[in-house]
């Protein structure tokens, strides 16, 4: 097989595939996590059934059946709704969503049909928390801005009046340095005047 680079041809940057949007990447990651957890739960359920049959001394002839068991598939409308919700999750929140989802699913044995609903609830929870947090931060920003505007508008005059303490400080001569360090500026003035 001949590659493009061996022929002297290179892909230009405009020929490279376009980068995916962050929302698409997050959506794919969350949906892949959901599918992996569904497969894992199906595997655990099959092993549990085999173990029950073995413990009950029931003959297992499932190896004679050549058709593989059909795995659970999320209904199309539910999948589309989940993808739409997952695309609203910010990339920085996706790790939290996945870790919370894993914690809930791995902690309790569940039916496979419940897993998409668990994912939906977790995503809804994170989106609700984000909207409440953004409303609070917007409210804080508005109150801070309004208080700053009030303090600026309360000053009717643009003049600055110095305090009396400042005038007294300006009239005092600077004290000479005594023991710590000699005053070179004064000695230069004395040498130049001589």
TrEMBL record:
Q: Which UniProt keywords apply?
A: Coiled coil
A Pfam family that this protein carries is RD3
Please give the residue ranges the record annotates as the region Disordered: 175-194
Protein's UniProt keywords contain Coiled coil: yes
- Regions of compositional bias (Basic and acidic residues) in chain numbering: 185-194
| Coiled-coil annotated residue ranges, if any | 27-54
Recorded protein name is Uncharacterized protein
Species of origin reads Pocillopora damicornis
Organism placement in taxonomy: Eukaryota, Metazoa, Cnidaria, Anthozoa, Hexacorallia
